[in-house]
Give the backbone structure.
Amino acid sequence: MEVTEVLSERELDRGFSHQVQDLPGAGGLEKCIQCGTCSGSCQMSARMDYTPRRLIEMARVGMKREVLSSRAIWYCASCYSCTVRCPRGINITEVMSGLKSLAIKNEMCSRRDDGPAFYTSFYDVIKRYGRLHEGSVIAGFAWKTNPWRLWGMAPLGWKMFLSGNLEVLPEKIKKPAEISLLLEKLGGGVMKR
Amino acid sequence: MPGSDATSCGILRVVAGAEQTEIGTGVQGMSDVRTGVYVCHCGSNIAEKVDCARVREFASELKNVVVARDYQYMCSEPGQELIRQDVEKNGINRVVVASCSPRMHEPTFRKTLETAGLNGYLLEMANIREHCSWVTTDREAATEKAAALVAGAVARVAFHEPLEERFADLKQRLLVVGGGIAGIEAALKVAAGGYQVTLVEKEPSIGGNMARLDKTFPTLDCSACILTPKMVAVAQSENVTLYTYAEVEKVEGYVGNFQVTIRQKARSVDTSKCTGCGVCYGKCPTRVPSEFDAGLGTRKAIYVPFPQAVPNKPVIDREHCLQFTKGKCGVCARFCPTGAIDYEQGDQLITEEFGAIIIATGYETWDPAAAPQWGYGRYDNVLTAMQLERLVNAAGPTKGKIQLQDGSTPEAVAILHCIGSRDENYHRYCSRFCCMSSLKLAHLAREKTGAEVYNFYIDLRAFGKGYEEFYNRVQEEGVHFIRGKGAEVIRKDGRLAVRAEDTLLGRYREVPVDMVVLNTAAVPRRDSEKVGQVFGIQPSPDGFFLEAHVKLEPLKTATDGIYIAGCCQGPKDIPDSVAQGAGAASEVLSLFAAGKVKISPVVATVDSQLCSGCRVCLPLCPYSAISYDEVNRTAYVNEATCKGCGTCVASCPSGALSVRHFTDEEIIAQIKEVLAV
Amino acid sequence: MRYTYFPGCSNHSSSRDYEESTREVCAALGIELVELQDWNCCGSTAVMAVDPMAAMALSARNLALAAAGGSREMVVTCNSCFSTLRRAGQFYQSEPLTRDAVDRALGEVGLTLQKPVPVRHLLDVLLNDVGLDGIGARVSNPLVGLKVVPYYGCLVGRPKNDFDDRENPCSLERLLGTTGAVLLPFEHKARCCGGALMTTKTEVALELCRDILQEAVERGAEVMAVTCPMCHLNLDAYQGQINQRFGTKFNLPILYFTQILGLSFGLREKELGLTRAMYRRFDYARV
Ligand code: SF4
Ligand code: SF4
């Protein structure tokens, strides 16, 4: 049995909710009536350690560490099922992506989860080439998590290659430097005021 | 700055705490205009944002102002006394009160002036609460604007003339529109007072939504048992004239004197001959889904909607009747023993005069087919709450048996609250009675089938007398409560399942059930916009009719003599609807008892010297108050009908029209002063 | 009809078949697709997860390039690109802070946005610009009786589009109805296939895809129509793994809706990229 303790006010990060809401599309958390429509609509909530509704409340209250180190955020498939049904018009999906980015930025990601490694590998590839290159993403992901993974993925990769669905070399845009500059100017995870 | 010489004028002895500035008797400008200005603090409502002392100082410098004071509550008795004293002692003959909206207290201060011996219309109000202190956090800006408004009012009031209120006769007859419980209650109450009432109902029978319900919460008495005696009383009352299957088509006139045109739709049955024996609908070959049974059962093309209908006389639904659609059948006419069937009957227009109108047109329930996630219209055994009411009812399509499409009894039933209510995607408001009706349906479902019943709710609002106790009782009966909105209904393993989060556990659940009941939002009737236009009453943002004041005048509308009661104003349960019906009746009874209606003297007037007789204004007047005098060749305003809206004034090319106290010179003087500050 | 075309990364790699069939079908209908010059990644959900503003930047660059190229409307075939680019345009217009930040960053690379061009899904363009009559007129090889389940996935309808219901979309039924195929009812039509979770939460995504395939097969589908490269990858390429894991025997061809249209236009197997299928190739002889 888990022992729960008094939720200490000192552990709460009062500014956290604002950090979340500063992200594009992620505002309006104060409107949530905790109805659970989001979690009830989510195909992933059964597998999440905290349901989307609960994450919203935890974020509002300021439970930064618990929220950012939850595994739930990495289970979100960005399917928007929750968002379209929320009776208070909260864009839960954007909140979920925002939480992922804050988890990465604050280095609080659950260590048991592969999500961060995949998304950062993806991001790195885009930053380098401006476009996706599946091979590089998978290589980066495997490198960060478990190189043996490549072994398991090889058959699929081979098949894709045979059917002409896999590029060996990455396709670059003409001005990749423009992309890195843009990402640096605008990047950083949190909206620049 | 408190007036240092205040004690000498003796007012502080009467009213402690009144701050004032006295300007002696040196009158500037128009020698006969002596204005008193009163700046109200409204407790802290105004004073918190407006520096009232500064406004008073400022006012004291204005032209014609003889005395300026500020005081905590001008509307209080001591506040009004200040004005009276100044009339008496300082000889003021114009009054400016800078306080709240004139909608709130203009009548109060008019009275004050009258008791002081001044004409009540020598008053002007400056709204420094709603227009200043409540709409800004900037104290400086609020104070400046307050000063400007006071300056404008002072300039304008100088032009005010004494006006006399007049009275018009009143027809002591009431029109009630809508024969649900609220309308019935209103009609019976006014009829009991000895006045004539006409009740118009759109459906073939009175009874409204309440007639469709099975039991009523929290006492579980049978809806029909408590409603039918009242319906019968309507039919039997000598003072009530009942038109069913009828609609109001046109309303003209004003409080005390409405001319109303009622369309009696063709029943195709001569009610004077019909005995209500029912042979006709026994024989009619055409079956139509029954509206009364929420589409679950059927009725015939000639029908009475339900057994206790009042009047118990059928109508022919011409859209479905074979005689009308195919031109042949005639079965009912052949079998009717009294020859009451009349296919030739046409609509009839009836014009009557009334002194007052109560609108009680009720509500309808939202059609959840618009939201596919809840499965309505997609899966069998997904019902609306109204459909379950009809299933449980002994007179319903299954004779009171709660059963699935295949005739079997459900083992598990889910009741979903807030479907289409409290939801920005559909309706933002809370439909108010669904929590309790869900509890009642849960009780009935459990009692009649023994099924496991799950209520999916966001918040349980059991606010009325005996409601919380009823909730507790239903809990004790073993009904399950899951705090989480039913997000979706799916089909799984041959049954239905409700997807939801049990928010108290923080766990996602898929609850397998056999029947899902959607307690859908109460919504304005689909023709309510049209009804609003006919009667000239406005909707609120939610589409229900707007009351004059949500707390203090819940039964009045912006149009004098037209009242609203029941669910047409917003969702309500039966106790509240009854209370409103009775309340609207009491409004009407006091109006009728007075026997006369006051007519505002702030109306349009024609300067016959200037009027060119072009008649541009005639069709523009929304109250048809202007007529044309052929002999003198000028327009002529009927002061009893004119509302002083000013539409005609703006249209007159010769500048011959003006509204009293809203003349060009008054308004220009006011604007000039406001802008000068 | 002329549109700016945003292919998206997949159409240049894992979904060549979508690219090929799109180009063929558009050509057949007289639609000219002008590829956006030097386009970059749309700013997909994976980027959002690392840096939402960076995702905005990527989308914004594409929208700015389109504006600079004088584009009137931009057509997209990938559900995810569609949703991402629209989302960016929407936040750019509705959130002043976001807008300022984006403007500043674009300024650094000499681009401006101001008014994002409308982004439209090819499904919408075919249905509402070409119209059912226009499509029907091109059908020379009716797919009489071919049983198709329409699968939309998430992002063509959610969070919002201008042309279809988000809970129960029906554009595919209407569009593909012109080919003579039989469109079956499909409750999983707008459920999620797991998307990128196929890599990080493989177990879960496989299960979601299993459920989708399961219903399709129970309904008697011969083909599943899809509108998104990601859905296609998950449902086609991973079908073998699904069978392995769950002991199922799925063998269902997953076709882009453009491929189905192309078939009815009498286009050939190769032209439509049908040979690129990863698990189950559509039986071309069937038509
Ligand atoms: S659906 Fe919206 S209001 Fe309901 S719990 Fe989720 S975020 Fe809150
Ligand atoms: S967007 Fe994420 S949180 Fe929302 S329903 Fe989809 S998976 Fe669940």
